[in-house]
Amino acid sequence: MILKSVPTRGRTLDHAAFVYDFFEPILLLGKQSEYDLEIVSLLELSPSHRVLDLGCGTGVLTRMIADRLDGGAGGVCIGIDAAAKMIQVARKKRASATCRFEVAAAEALPFEDRSFDAVVSSLFFHHVPLDLKEKALAEAFRVLLPGGRLVIADMHTPTTWMGALVSHVARWFFLQPPIGENIRGVLPQLIEHAGFLPPKPISTYFGYIVTFATRKPEAG
Ligand SMILES: C[S@@+](CC[C@H](N)C(=O)[O-])C[C@H]1O[C@@H](n2cnc3c(N)ncnc32)[C@H](O)[C@@H]1O
To answer: What class has domain 14-215?
Structure first.
């Protein structure tokens, strides 16, 4: 079946899908599994959880989460990406009984209200402009159950000169204004503005990637 990418003003990576698994470990300087494992632990998973991964790319993190879930108990991790080629690679390499992949835009999720226990995203929000960041967070809020967990790892205000150098060079080399928004530190306010409890910054990688964890309020 031929998959079609969905239209979005986000920077999608159809063109990079077949080399992404080669380059990502290099960009994360050998820390990819430490980084992914921290995200997994922040999700506070139970085997029956339904988890949604926004901007999943080729699905390495999606599968790592899915491997901790029990399909018999209803557990599943669904990765979505607007780039069809990313989803093709993800399905081919990483689909399993508890791991599914769909082409979808994070700002218009094809899922019912309150249908997930947790929403996660890694290195996705610096790919979308401010209004789509807001829409994607509103959608994450909508599909989460009350008390559901939100974990976001992404570019943020740099804390070291090397982090500042890398992120400013990336912003101009890729001509990607949404990276500039992340550098300005917009993510925590946007997360709270979407209705989530104030997000806690947990760890910083390379002086410019921060993990944030929070929840949808029980009464949300
Ligand atoms: C840097 S990759 C991150 C992939 C993966 N989460 C990871 O950590 O390796 C960003 C992904 O976001 C996707 N993307 C961009 N805009 C999107 C949107 N509006 N909705 C869903 N995915 C989008 C891109 O196609 C790309 O695969």
So the answer is: alpha beta
